[in-house]
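To the structural biology subgroup,

Please find below the input and predicted structure for Aldehyde dehydrogenase, which we are adding to the shared reference set this quarter. The sequence is reproduced verbatim from the submission form. If anyone notices a discrepancy with their own records, reply to this email rather than editing the shared folder directly, so we keep one authoritative version.
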Amino acid sequence: MLRIQNYLNGALVPPQAGRYLDNVDPATGQVYGQIPDSGPEDVAAAVAAAEAALPAWRALPAEDRGRLLVKIADLIDANLDRLARAESQDNGKPLTLARAMDIPRAASNFHFFGTAAGHFATEAHVQDGVAVNYTVRHPVGVVGCISPWNLPLYLFTWKIAPALAVGCCVVAKPSEITPATAFLLSELCIEAGLPAGVLNIIHGNGPNCGQAIVEHPGIKAISFTGGTATGRHLARTAAPMFKKLSLELGGKNPNIIFADCDLAAAVATSIRSSFANQGQICLCGSRIFIERPIYEAFKTEFLKQLKDQKIGDPLEPDTKQGALVSEAHLNKVLAYIKLAHEEGGKLLAGGHRATVPGRCAEGYFLEPTVFENLPFDCRTNQEEIFGPVVTLTPFDTDEEALMMANSTDYGLSATLWTRDLQRAHRIAHQLHSGIVWINTWLHRDLRTPFGGMKNSGVGREGGLEALRFFTEAQNVCVKL
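Predicted structure (tokenized):
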């Protein structure tokens, strides 16, 4: 049985109170390991280690910090198979997905920000004949990074890498539901020679461990990805302490299919954007709006291709749909399916817990589920389900599509399918979404800002936005 340890001041150590939580394999429903049930005392020790390491780390030339991050990226690449298998077992996702997306993107995060460290430039503003003003950016200090369970190592490193790149030291907490790859990252950081205390990974649940990170006065900034309700609670705690906050929260994303689209591409990509990672991606398009002239054609082809989404053992190479992350989450999604029936929805596909024979007979599997005939403003179409459940809704005009798309409290992402370039730009600029994809989905460019509007978050991650978040600007004026 795997017993995970905290990564504290450069060493792997048990939690101070000696308490552990069970770690469950969602594909089998069986406990396969334990993780530390860390508390405020462990967080305090991590902050102390980070504060001690901070002067030397921030003074290290950016190129030297970058070389260490690139070395970690190379070690992630070298351990692809081991990390991917751990991610699949911990999360329930298909091993093929972990190999193709989660682990390579984690390596990319370290490589991108490692190389970006040496290109983060000072800005200068010359007042002719009067003065020169220049702006330097100093690391904000010790920061807290709290990441979710859906893309565990990918989103964990998405936060840690830019913080380390600019010279911050980090106290990080992965989700207690999916801690395995963060633990393996600890081992890789030791192997890479990352100085003690620069990165500390503390395992535990939200109320005991996460809350202690947010409350600790030594932590100057918080980067959090997770649910909107948790983000609201976190903000109430951190705002009076004047901590910097970056909150990437929930989404209820529209996928708008216009009649002039490339129908084959729209259907194939919409299958992926609906059900990738069992619908457990904050960017999944769970509300599909289809222009009425092609509604039946889209629905017919969508349901036909859905039959190819094989539910199975995540370790099997032909599995498309793995297990949901936990029994509690499975029950939550099933409750929303029940709600959709109560709200008058017509079930077109799925809707039931799935059984996978063999070792996965007790796993948390759910059929990909499709409803139609639901009002755009019903709870099923307004609340984040975060599972393999989508709705199909026809529309007649651009204005109607925009109204329905913008009707939720969320504004993370949106997708448009059309051959009309002018319409694409016009609609995109009117969508209340931090990210808009046109004729594609989930394309990632690490140089671009990432984040949502409305209840989908505060601030932006990615590229220079991430580097700026983990720094404080200082203006220096020199009289000529």
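Summary notes: Residues 95-116 form the longest helix (22 residues). The chain has a mean pLDDT of 97.

Regards,
Lab coordination
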